[in-house]
Design a protein that fits this description.
The protein has 3 helices and no strands. By secondary structure, it is mostly helical. The longest helix has 35 residues.
Length: 98
């Protein structure tokens, strides 16, 4: 007499499906790892010329900010009526060659 257990067959079938899916997933992950390792090894190298240009831009930004602050201070003094210019300073600026 042959005894069949349908429940056991379904469990074994499901187990086999999960094992196959796990193998497929592991294979995909193994393929992805070399690509990821290459991505981790990427590196950016900035040349000396680029660093020099970056410092120049930073310095120009600092100069622009200082000029803006000075212009704002002069504007406030003009509005308040406290801005004074000496005649000697004007004469030196006029006589100075461009």
């Amino acid at each position: 007499m042959k005894v069949e257990n349908e429940g056991l067959r379904r469990i074994l079938s499901r187990y086999a499906e999960q094992a196959e899916a796990s193998k497929s997933r592991e294979a995909r992950e193994a393929q992805m790892k070399p690509e990821k390792a290459e991505a981790d090894s990427d590196e950016v190298v900035v040349s000396d010329r680029a660093r020099e240009l970056q410092r120049a831009h930073q310095r120009l930004d600092e100069i622009a900010a200082a000029r803006k602050a000075r212009a704002e201070a002069i504007r406030r003094d003009l509005e308040a009526g406290t801005y004074r210019v000496s005649g000697d300073m004007v004469a030196r600026k006029l006589a100075k060659p461009s």
